[in-house]
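Homework help board

Subject: predicted structure for assignment chain

Our instructor gave us this sequence and asked us to write out the predicted structure in token form, then describe one feature. I got the tokens but I'm not sure how to describe them. Can anyone check?
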Amino acid sequence: MIERYARKEFADAFSLEAQYRRWLEVEIAVLDALAEAGTVPQEAVEEIRRRSVIDVDRILAIEATVRHDVVAFTQAVAESVGPAARYLHYGLTSSDVVDTAWGIALRDASDVLLADIDALQAVLARRAWEERRTPVIGRTHGIHAEPTSFGLKLALWHAELGRDRERLVRARGAVAVGKIAGAVGTYAELPPEIEERALARLGLAPETVPTQIVQRDRHAEWLFSLAVLGATLEKIATEVRSLQRSEVRELEEPFAAGQKGSSAMPHKRNPVVAERICGLARLLRGYLVAGLEDVALWHERDISHSSVERVALPDAALLADFLLRDMTWLVGGMKIDRQNMERNIWRSGGLVFSQRVLLRLVETGLSREDAYAIVQSHAMAALAAGGDFQGALLSDPRVTERIPAEELRSLFDVRGYLGHVDEILKRAGIQGEALS
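My token output:
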């Protein structure tokens, strides 16, 4: 089912054919290092490079008999090469090839995902700058709190994605490793110099202390970075879903011409993409559990991790790519209802400005306890009866004796909450000049 969500060109990078090509790339990189050291004739290496054929069907046919994928791979390639194939897989164990190839695959997948993050951040930065002066009610516990800027919501997501990016960059370094160290990592067949030369050709670092495998805490870290990324995307999608509710209607994800929201109710325009992101983020987090379970293996290795990661690692990469592209589409085309945003700020009759009145009363010399009691009594009455909070304050001499009416009205101005928005956006790396 994962292919349904994947870009074909990215899914192809995790196909069997692509896997075998990476294995061959590792084999040839080792042969090049061996030829440099004088262990293997250069002519044999060139012949292997020139004549090697990846025939997926033939490899699978051999595997059906030998029940070992790397053995099947080397036998099938050897058939296409001829006598020079005796040098293929020289001094190697299967995990030298498989794990080093994983290093290539996960490094390259990370680069695709980093580009995806950059694209989403660019859209968020642009929209954050555009909406920096758009007031919207801030909510805590789901209850109206104080006005804020919608641009700040977008900037928050932009900043969190920046941290997700940093985590993925670190995880990329953790998985961009290989090992050409032999059956239990002692370099008994090939010296460390061969590994160093081969991995340098592949753009990988060597495992610090290898066993038969590259250690799986590295892959767990990579899956963790994708799980946190998925959590960020779910966070954004959850906010969109919440703000698209009929009672709120401040946001709406794109709805195409001809699109149907319900088979029964023609009026429906549901946040289906945001809901899909939330659902698939659960699946993405689940792969982290699988990765953590792969860390503890018996002794120098067992094979319990192998079947797990053949599913978890490609699927996590493909899902993360899909979710990032989905979110970029959603944020880029998201409709913003500024009128409803303003209407919702005033829905409570000005209650959301209560703290400004409280603080101004304190500034006049009233104790905080007394000021709080005055403001809260009017706020609770207005909340219960749907009354005019500002009007109630204007009719209370305990307030007007300290705050002139004109000044009191000025406290109910949303612009008072937007004065530092540009400063915060700048701190998040969002500036208008950079977006033009």
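Reply (TA_rk): Your tokens look well-formed. For the description, you could write something like this. The chain is about 65% helix and 5% strand. That's the kind of observation they're looking for.
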